Amino acid sequence: MGVVPPGGRRHGTARHGTGTARHSLINIYLFFFKTGQMPRLSKVNLFTLLSLWMELFPSAEQQKKSQVKKSGLVVVKNMKIIGLHCSSTDLHAGQIALIKHGSRLKNCDLYFSRKPCSTCLKMIVNAGVNRISYWPADPEISLQNEVSNPTSTEDAKLDAKAVERLKSNSRARVCVLLQPLVCYMVQFIEETSTKFDFIQKIAKSQPDYNTDFYTACRQERIKEYESLFLISNEEIHKQILMTIGLENLCENPYFSNLRQNMKDLVLVLASVAASVPVFGCFGFYRSGSQRTAEADDQCLPQDVARHCMIQARLLAYRTEDHKTGVGAIIWAEEKSRGCDGTGAMYFIGCGYNAFPVGSEYADFPHMDDKQKDREIRKFRYIIHAEQNALTFRCREIKPDERSMIFVTKCPCDECVPLIKGAGIKQIYAGDVDAGKKKADISYMKFGELEGVSKFTWQLSPLQTNALEFHDPTARENGVQKTKSLDDQQHQSKKLCLGHY
Ligand SMILES: Nc1ccn([C@@H]2O[C@H](COP(=O)(O)OP(=O)(O)OP(=O)(O)O)[C@@H](O)[C@H]2O)c(=O)n1
């Protein structure tokens, strides 16, 4: 059976395949062969990754250089995300959580991208949260400026002490929850990100087809995120761990294990972020008849749309469908700018494709439409990413607000009416399957959908117009056709274990 990446599907062998890459691919396939499953992100790691990613939410505000670092926060209730936040210029992420959730924080788990300061912690603890997990590097009140600013570092140390006192006297567990990734997860994510639809679409549009630009982009992201989320100097890292009460992690092998786990998660983040790259004139644009100057104005800024799509991509790595993983996330925009670092945007719900809640692995078939017997195929049982996002949303979708769903794949015919019926105003998605009718799942309605704006990953209209000038056959049903991508994808599905 072919193995397909979450959020996309496997294509023909990439030209960038080096010996090592191929070796890791063989290992992934062996893992799949032995276990019958693809590696999957744990919930704790997913929440941790989303907290790091929220720290990077594109901000309209000017970031000032300060001792207080921006931090990201994921609020979780009963293992479901109910809030995604990040610091603004005026408020820390913890303060924002308090304003937004108030006493609803009771019994919640909070995942911070930095250990929160005492000002935030005292209020969060007071609200009765259950657990506070944080990324064990430089805390919110940075401890990294010793030489340049001794006074503020003194204050930072005092704050760290206050945090420890609050921690030891509170009911809430304040801890580091990150877990080692399962075997081959890093390789699997790298491999599947290279093959993600968006990357393939760019690659096919380039005259010299290859995905080297993905590798370059990933390298850049790795460098950027390592400098933000890791502490390169081991001694400084140890000193920080001591100051924030993690002396037990300063001895080997615990210290090196911790650093390896952190590094792996940073690699995962970089790989996924690079799969929705800032590349040339590619982005989320309306297609065909939906395209008007006024309509394009209503599109989110590209960096925000990319950011949310990357969240959906991360969610896809929790899929229970071992062939096609899909992630979806719903955001909405208030009428006026809020206090959150996300501006006017607020989180509504998220999901990934999986079997009904509470079901066990053997309860339902996992086969796809290549299986002759229709009765033992997965399609009638699996809940789609959009369906889970809608079902487990934590806020209502208000008719007078702009709400938007980000899906890593084209919404299918089951989901399109649900999205429209729920009152969602915009869809950001890939369109690779649009217009396809398969044996058990169809993607025909997306193209015909009216009353909901659709922004798909493609070349910007300006660039496309230039292309069309040279090649008028470059579009079909209003959808940008990147030369025979669909055909090549079809071929790729024949990629099976035996080929390696
Ligand atoms: N917008 C979408 C589209 C599909 N899915 C999920 O994606 C899987 C089906 O993907 P698809 O690629 O259409 O079918 P496969 O048989 O997995 O792959 P193939 O293209 O080879 O037929 C199912 O788990 C379905 O729930 C989803 O969650 N949301």
Automatic annotation (TrEMBL):
Broadest EC class assigned to this enzyme: hydrolase
Cofactor(s) annotated in UniProt: Zn(2+)
Gene Ontology process terms (BP): nucleotide biosynthetic process
Domain spans labelled CMP/dCMP-type deaminase: 52-145, 303-443
Hydrolase keyword on record: yes
SUPFAM superfamilies to which the protein is assigned, alphabetical: Cytidine deaminase-like (SSF53927)
InterPro entries referenced in this protein's UniProt entry, alphabetically: APOBEC/CMP_deaminase_Zn-bd (IPR016192), CMP_dCMP_dom (IPR002125), Cytidine_deaminase-like (IPR016193), dCMP_deaminase-rel (IPR015517), Deoxycytidylate_deaminase_dom (IPR035105)
Keyword flag tRNA-binding: no
Record's keyword terms, sorted: Hydrolase, Metal-binding, Repeat, Zinc
Domain of life, per lineage: Eukaryota
GO (cellular component) term, any one: cytoplasm
GO molecular function: cytidine deaminase activity; dCMP deaminase activity; zinc ion binding
Record Pfam families: dCMP_cyt_deam_1
Catalysed reactions listed for this entry: 2'-deoxycytidine + H2O + H(+) = 2'-deoxyuridine + NH4(+); cytidine + H2O + H(+) = uridine + NH4(+)
Annotated EC: 3.5.4.5
Family classification: Belongs to the cytidine and deoxycytidylate deaminase family.
Protein name: Cytidine and dCMP deaminase domain-containing protein 1
Gene source species: Chloebia gouldiae
